[in-house]
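# nightly structure sweep
# worker-07 picked up a monomer target from the shared queue
# config: single-sequence mode, recycle default, output format = structure tokens
# input follows
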Amino acid sequence: MVRKSHFDPQRVREEIAIAAARMIAEDGLDYSTAKRKAARQIVGETRVAGEWLPDNDQIEEEIREYQSIFQGDSQPAVLRRLREIALDWMQRLAPFNPYLTGAVLGGTAGEHSDVHLQTFCDNPKEVVIYLLNANVQYDVSETRHFAGRGYVETLSFLHRPVASAADADLIDSVGIHIALYDTDDLRGAVRVDARGRQARANAQTVQALLDGSGNAAPTN
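# output follows
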């Protein structure tokens, strides 16, 4: 095995980012899993020090590049359909102040991607009651709080959209995940990141993305 000291760290990060991006775009792996698998593939070791690993922003840039080259004919249509599904559920969940986050918002979602929503209301259990009344069968899990303050309850279920003749082959079914937050969490949720991007968007913003056919995450 070649010692890592013989590698150029920047080049290793680039190669890991490229390999991880392909796994995410083609197989639907999450960032963490794809990064670990790509690191083993490139470096040949089970554990790779953080200094050799790309950050998620670098991987996201490579995903966009991969999709533009290899999925340019299909990914934009799939992304649009996922955003339409997300908006549909946001409108249903309007009383609970829903926000869209993740790859569907960011523009890198593909055929394996799920829709990730976050609700912000005084009594998150009301979302549970709504789904029960709507006869939606869901699983309960936990998602790490976006601000790192423990975990929040998350409701997940499979949505099978009614496909039109135009998009019958785009999406057969899609996972919907609803993370339940308190109203007080919303203030920190709508802040932009260091690159000026919003990590989550309300229904009006998602509708604007659809109207403008934009792929990128909204900025302030």
